[in-house]
Amino acid sequence: MRTPLLLQSLKTRLATLRELIEPLASQRHFSPRFDRQLFSCSGARLGDYLAEAEESLAHLEAAVTQGDAARVAWLAERLAAQIEALQREAATATLRRHENAHLPGGRLHARLAEYQEYERRLLAMKTGRERRCAENHDPQLAREIDALNERLARCRTAIARTERALERITR
């Protein structure tokens, strides 16, 4: 039967998407990103939409166990569309850095996007080094990971400070 293969394919795509979006999951968006038919959540972060896609997968698995073929087809199509939309959004995240420059606090929004991009890149570097360190047990890689953790902490502090400044402006 093709249903288990479909489920496995969707789980794999969702896991890949989770790795792609993880660094972007906490980025706050100031305008709607998705059609209300596709995502019912009204969260301001990509992580909220990713969580809804994961919830859709759980509903799909439940429909498969119940044997409701029509519901399985609809949920599978919807989940595939959600995954595609999130992949497009993640791919265009760097292009959206300065989209809010015309709003009050536009420079702060641009700075926040820049810090979030730094955070994403630092997380990717850290993940790569952790993988290599797990394979090689190199003390140099362990020192690099510690340095990256310190840089991430400073970056996250800057993100929090910028978000607080934005909150003060938008009150």
TrEMBL record:
Name of the molecule in the record: Primosomal replication protein N
Record lineage: Bacteria, Pseudomonadati, Pseudomonadota, Gammaproteobacteria, Enterobacterales
Organism field: Cronobacter turicensis (strain DSM 18703 / CCUG 55852 / LMG 23827 / z3032)
Gene3D superfamilies in the cross-refs: 1.20.1270.340
Superkingdom of this protein's organism: Bacteria
One Pfam family cited in the UniProt record for this chain: PriC
InterPro entries cross-referenced by the UniProt entry: PriC, PriC_sf
Gene behind the chain: priC
